[in-house]
Amino acid sequence: MQHYTIGEAARLLRVSADTARRWADAGRFPTVREDGRRKVTGADLAAFCVQYAQESAEEHGEPTTSVRNAMPGIVTAVTLDDVVAQVEMQAGPHRIVSLLTREAVEELGLEVGVRATARVKSTSVHINID
User: Fold this and answer.
1) Is residue 124 located within the same domain as residue 73?
2) Are 51 and 99 part of one and the same domain?
C-alpha cells in the first residue's frame, strides 16, 4: 500500500501543507506515523479526494472549463473485466474515467491510492504512473 506525506497529499489536493495538516488534525482523513513523519495511506487519501471534490462541486458549482494535457491526481477506483478495465482518477476537482486493457492496468500497477497523471489529447486519455 502506498503512503503519502502530508506535503504530497497537499500537492495532490492542491492546497497548502498547513491546510492538509489542519484537515488531518480535524479527522477528515486518518494519518499514521512512519519514519517519524505523518503519512496517509493511498486508499484513505483517494477516498478523501472523492469526498473533497464532491464538497467543492456542491459549494462552488461544477467547473465550466475543460482542463487539457497533464492532470496529476490519484487513482480512486479500478474495475477489471476479462479483457478491459476502467480506471477512475481524481485530479483536483476533476473526475477522470479511462477505459484501458486489463493488461495495461496490470502492467502499470494501477490500483486505488496510486498517484498517476491523466494526459488528455482530444478524446483520448492516457494515464501514467508518476
Assistant:
1) yes
2) no
Which tens digits make up the pLDDT trace of 51-66? 888 887 777 665 444 4
Q: What is the pLDDT of residues 10-54, one digit of tens each?
A: 998 888 999 999 999 999 999 999 888 999 999 999 999 988 888
Q: pTM surpassing 0.90? A: no
CATH at residue 89: 2.40.50.100
- What b/e string do you get for 4-40 counting C-beta neighbours within 10 Å, with b at 16 or more? bbbebbbbbbeeeeeebbebbeeeebebeeeeeebbb
| Strand runs labelled E in 27-123 | 32-34, 37-41, 69-80, 84-91, 94-101, 115-121
**CA angle centred on 21, ends 60 and 59, rounded to 5°:** 10
Fill in the amino acid letter for 105: V
Cell triple for 119: 494526459
Q: How far apart (Å, rounded) are the C-alpha atoms in residues 88 and 121?
A: 17
C-alpha cell at 115: 498517484
The range of the structural domain enclosing residue 27 comes to: 3-60
